[in-house]
Design goal:
single chain; two-stranded antiparallel ribbon; about 60% helix; about 10% strand
């Protein structure tokens, strides 16, 4: 699993900005005739040390290092605590420099405090905005990760799905064939065995060659023909040049199963389904002859579309008119190169 990127502030940013603030704070001293180099260095060192402290204080007070939650408002208790801590540290730094270096003349303490509060506000707001931006990015990453996991789970569920109604109907058909001692019973059992063998072999694969998908479809269609006889007609006009392309396994089976679910299939009104290629799409076309009271939720086609978006990053296309229903599925030609 991809590791979550930790929020960090570059040491170059911390030290670079602190040195820059120290230099800026000392510029007025350069135009003060009374100030000496010693005074400028002391003034700069106080600002530098204070800026570094404020950076690390605010960084380590972030929710990553404490039990506090990120405030919705920019100005909250964290800022107040930071200001008070900054005032205390600035006083300590000024006193320490006076004692250590015996400075005869320094800026008034209030000037240092005002400077400290200004630096504190600048660092706090900049860091706050950086952290808010980081959290927003992490939320986006987590949302995408959750979406990918959800799509993966849907795909795995759909990939392992074998319609129990189909199995039930196939066993009923087999029973009827055995009862009437149909000589095709043995072939039916072999085709049923082949279909479920293909199911076990292919369910762990994300993509399979179209040629293998058509082998699975051949067994599936044989079982359907045994059940519906001439009430079901499949015309395969797929260009053999497309056989090296790839699609998610059982796509064609699910599309044909969807056709049968919503349309009348009978000897009086045969359901005709045509397979052919059009540009870089494989088209599954059927004549519309809806069952009475049939209501389509679109869940089946949406699941198939999610699989293609997850694996091939392309969407299926649906073309419907009064007489025909077409589903165009994109073919992947990078299968062998992967």
């Amino acid at each position: 699993m991809e590791k979550v990127k930790r929020f960090q502030v570059s040491q170059k940013v911390i030290w670079g900005s602190s040195i820059a603030l120290a230099i800026l704070a000392s510029i007025p001293k350069l135009f003060d005739a009374v100030s000496t180099l010693h005074d400028i260095i002391i003034n700069s060192s106080i600002t530098l040390l204070f800026s570094i402290f404020i950076w690390y204080y605010n960084i380590y007070s972030l929710p990553r290092f404490s039990n506090q939650r990120t405030g919705r408002s920019l100005f909250n208790m964290r800022l107040l605590l930071s200001v008070f801590a900054g005032i205390a540290i600035m006083v300590a730094l000024v006193i320490a420099h006076q004692e250590l270096f015996q400075v005869a003349k320094m800026d008034a303490p209030i000037m240092f405090e005002l400077r400290g509060i200004l630096i504190n506000l600048i660092v706090y707001m900049f860091l706050h905005l950086l952290f808010q931006n980081y959290q927003t990015q992490q939320m986006g990453v987590e949302l995408e990760r959750t979406k990918a996991v959800n799509l993966g789970a849907q795909y795995e569920l759909l990939k392992q799905q074998v319609n129990p109604h189909f199995l039930f109907n196939s066993l009923n058909t087999l029973k009827s064939m055995v009862d009437i001692q149909d000589p095709q019973s043995s072939d039916f059992i072999l085709k049923l065995s082949d279909f479920y063998r293909f199911t076990l072999e292919s369910r762990k694969m994300d993509l399979i060659p179209l040629s293998e998908e058509l082998q699975i479809l051949d067994s599936y269609v044989y079982l359907l023909k045994a059940r519906f006889e001439d009430g079901f007609v499949l015309e395969n006009e797929i260009d053999t040049k497309q056989y090296y392309s790839a699609i998610p396994p059982f796509t064609l089976q699910l599309l044909i199963e969807n056709c049968i679910k919503h349309n009348v299939v009978s000897l009086d009104k045969p359901l005709k389904i045509k397979l052919y290629t059009e540009n870089e799409f494989l088209v599954v076309e059927n004549k519309i002859q809806l069952k009475r009271g049939a209501v389509s939720t679109g869940v089946g086609l949406d699941n198939i579309n999610q699989r293609f978006m997850h694996l091939i990053h392309k969407e299926i296309e649906i073309d419907k008119n009064e007489s025909t229903f077409k589903v165009k599925i994109p073919l992947n030609y990078d299968y062998h190169s992967n």
